[in-house]
Amino acid sequence: MTVAPETDTPPVPEGYVRLTVDGRRIDAPKGELIIRTAERMGVVIPRFCDHPLLDPAGACRQCLVEVEVNGKAMPKPQASCTMTVADGMVVRTQHTSPAADKAQQGIMELLLINHPLDCPICDKGGECPLQNQALKHGRSESRFRDTKRTFAKPIPITSQVLLDRERCVLCQRCTRFAKQVAGDPFIEMLERGALQQVGTAEHHSGQSYFSGNTIQICPVGALTSTAYRFRSRPFDLVSTPGVCEHCASGCSQRTDWRRGKVMRRLAGEDPEVNEEWNCDKGRFAFRYATATDRFTRPLVRDRSSGELREASWTEALRTAADGLVTARDARGVGVLPGGRVTMEDAYAYSKFARMALGTNDIDHRARVHSDEELEFLSSTVVGTAPDAGGVTYADLENAPAVLCAAFEPEEESPIVFLRLRKAARKHTRVFHLGQWNSPGVEKTVAVAGAGGPLHSGDLLPCPPGGEAAALDELPAEADEALRQPGAVLVLGERAAHVTGLHSAAVRLARRTGARIAWVPRRAGERGAIEAGTTPTLLPGGRMVTDSRARADIERAWGLKPTMLPDTPGRDTGGILAATASGELSGLLVGGVDPDDLPDPALARRALERADFVVSLEMRPTVATERADVVLPIAPTVEKSGTFLNWEGRAREFAVTIESTGSLPDCRVLDTLAVEMDVDLFTQTPAAVAGELERLGSHDGRRPQPPDVPASPAAEPGPGQVLLATWHQLLDNGSLQDSEPHLAGTARPTAARLSARTAQEFGVRTGQHVTVGAAGGTVTVEAEVVDMPDRTVWLPTNSGPSKVDRELGVGHGALVDLAADVPAPPGAAPASPDPSRPDNPAGPAVQEGTAPTGSRRAGDSGGSHSEGSRA
Amino acid sequence: MTDAANPPEGTNPLTPVLTRRWLSPRSWTLHTYEQLEGYSALRTALSAHPDQLIELVKAAGLRGRGGAGFPAGVKWGFMPKEPSKPHYLVINADEGEPGTCKDVPLMMADPHSLIEGCVIAAYAMRAHHCMIYVRGEALHCVRRLHQAVREAYESGYLGRDILGSGFDLDVVVHAGAGAYICGEETALLDSLEGKRGQPRLKPPFPAQAGLYACPTTVNNVETIASVPYVVNGGSDWFRTMGREKSPGPKIYSLSGHVENPGQYEAPLGTTLRELLELAGGMKDGVPLKFWTPGGSSTPLLTADHLDVPLDFEGATEAGTMLGTTALMIFNETVSVPWAVMKWTQFYEHESCGKCTPCREGCFWLAQVLERMVDGRGTEEDIDTLLDVCDNILGRSFCALGDGAVSPITSGIKYFRDEFLALCERNRSTETADTALVGAAR
Fold first, then answer.
1. Mean pLDDT, all residues of chain B
2. Staple partner for A134: which of A138, B299, B322, B406, CB 3.0–4.6 Å?
3. Which residue from B213, B356, B439 is facing A61, i.e. has the nearest CB?
């Protein structure tokens, strides 16, 4: 704030103008809206339609002020949310202008004549901008004596957002958010005059991953969520700031809870990260923590019955310690912490593996991974942070060009998507190296301008698996765009599917000067790398092969020199293979669902074969079935910790719900280690954070980045196509369990293929196709889109399309494709919602083991549709 | 032509310029138009430099005939001189102001004068696309325009290389879907783009970013139809009609309780007294009670205002606006509150809903007036009406709200007694609790 003292007149800074607001002089940047200038001075002008992250609308007229320009008073009061500051301007708000005050009171009275004033039963009551501002700026009594407008209530906007139209003040925040920020105009203004209302858009599927934000920015109680509606009053809730655990975006959030139970989550405000938004998964998916099948007590496998039974912590820890010691002393134990751990928990796993198990066989990557990726992470990613050369959200927003490779922002990191979209709406050219014009690609390469869509970038299509080769030979347009200073290349975790892609990214960065950002999906991935849960890295990016680095850690951990293992360990795949073949005796498994692994069958074999398995889990998984000991651990909401988001930015959070008795992984591992006569000193996340702080990051040498030649995409043989696949944001993920309303907004499951490929294989949109590989088959509805020929795209884990589990192959692999026997006419699969015939695809049919093109798959499709049509 | 159109002062108060062909047989055909000097101005214009035409229109002082009276030449001058994006000329033919009936008759009787004006104006502002946005309800007029545009294309007045000048122009006739707000120029542009018609935030103004975010000028039908005459007659001739600041002829549309309602083209500044004489006086000799000078959005006037010169300045001095020169004339048999209620119901129906004051205010005003006319009003209602009007006037997003309160404030200003009389019945009953007047009976 730059309020100048009245006595001296310093010069107006370059790019600023000097004006007077309520008699006080202020310098404001050119182009700033009056309402913001006033806000910076602490002068609050009431408003409804105004929102700093939305384009000005000037619809509600609540923010009227008196304005003088060039010494002349403007005849009408002006909307301060649409008028920009000017030199010499004199602004009088409601505090100093009776005219402005009357104008505001008049608008408030008008807003209330048709408002039901049902605050006592309205979810927004107690936190309602209309309520608050009416009390502050309105008349205490209305002169309205006539009949209010009423509507039938409520209208479901989506399965999780409900609309009570009579409460709406028609500020258009929700519709503007949907159109401008999310790019999903699923709601629109309909009708006119006093009958104007928000309604579902005519030519839109209604699908949006961001619809929950409309509830939060609604300045009245018109939009409510199905999950929270009528559940509690804001003043009965305790609000605790937190960090979202769902992905690596690192959203700040607010968790509202009471009596030990989370009632709702809201997006927190963090201009550097998520601004004021979050995705629907972050907002609505939190009831997994209160699922009825959550472990509350340790379980130990009964020797006689072979079943798991509840046990005391003492017994369970003793059993686990004994078993692990035995396994360690036999052929060793591998550690799989999973990608959802906090940095503190990851550190405990890292320390446990090295100190208690004496091994580097640790890998948190419960997903596709490669040696090349590990080299890339150790050379290019580890140690980067906003203050240490890392790419940030702001860098994306200000970049002249961004290229996303093996990364689907909307599905894998929705807040990165929102920032890319914001950038594209300003000036950034966004390119995607991918397979098809997915909704997320479309919304970042063609954004709505004032006069129609503006093309801000392009999809650079390539066959799946061919990304590395494509990156080496980018089209000139993209290559040149990336040569501009500030350009960014964003790489997703899927890059590990493509041999040579990490190396090609490094080569591209060298060639063009573009900076590299790596965006994993899971919230814990980035922190786990820093914490040392990979087979080649100790905490702080120290190489296990570097004797000086090892010595650092040995000192810090109070170990005798040369006690740390000095050879790189096995990665996830190696650990599982070694266990399955009997080279390893035991497994310590964190939050890993074997079905998320690139080879679930191998994981099952490993679990089967292992002599001893300890599972640290919240809820049953495949690992539970084979675990000898299950140790319950706390969900994010019941512990404190830190996630590093994709930027490397530390996102600390405190315990939200205290005293539940559940323990974070680091505490459980600490106690377990004590049972094994090892002191980890990881009793609390705070203690770990302190140790991490003292340890600092490694300033020694970094390994060379990988330089693996790009391999071309595989060549499909007869009946074969290339598989492209990635996760959808809302899918079968276990953290989305118990959220039926959220699930209702997931994208329909469909296989995508090009028109030519469809023709070649005799497939029509809406018909089912069966994709087969060595592991099995997946049968889903097909949709024809514009994408490279001889390619099929499947969602990785949506509905029946469980690519890892059913097919056992991944992105870029060769798979068999066959059209299913057409269902009889009239029994065509119906869309899940008959009122939305334009829904891109209907329900998919699960057909795990049917042979390609089998009759059964077709029958199944028919019977399914019969059900939904009835 | 000049002589015919401009007889010596005093001999004939009418100045048939825009209307001079209206009574010719099949006046709407190209054949008739060409016989009566049609498209002669176009040839002159195409041989001039575009900037000369803008200067000519500025010199003539032609002011926008859609109601606001903004100088047309100045508006054209806002268009960029060096086109980097397509330029658009949009004709506002969405004539919807209650009482207004000048553009539709003009397009019915003489559509080619509009088309000729379009070509000249488009040439002046370097536009190669012109859209005529016609009120959809005027279906016959839409058809006639389509026919005229087709004729013009066939004869080389539209399309590629018009009259060998090298200038290209395409004209599209677009029928609106019946929303009053689409007469507001930015709402009209949204509607043309296929969106819901609601006014846009300004700036940017249409001349910077209008239709499809390209430089655009929106002109009224009568304004553009005047252009060929300005080109042929010159600015001096044009200024021989009307008054210093409001020169030229104007079509006055007289409706209501007059003997011969219709369009009367007279110089700007003509008074109602003169127009009533032309129209044969009040119907059946019943005395005049109140009238609107330019549609229902302009504050109404009374018999005391018979000598107000009806031009932009004269109307403003009398506390009203010239608007569209739609003179709705009411005799003593008409109740002012009733008429005001009907107009308010119109605005309630036509408010686009974008901004609070207009949307909610019109909804409220209509209910209060309906109740008053029904005999359930209270004196307090009159104060409420005026205060709500004050909260709408100048607070709404566009001028629709301002227009909506005009009949109420002016009606109460001149005829408060009539509103009070309506409250009498309620005052005499015992249940006159103001808090309950709106309760269902």
1. 94
2. A138
3. B356
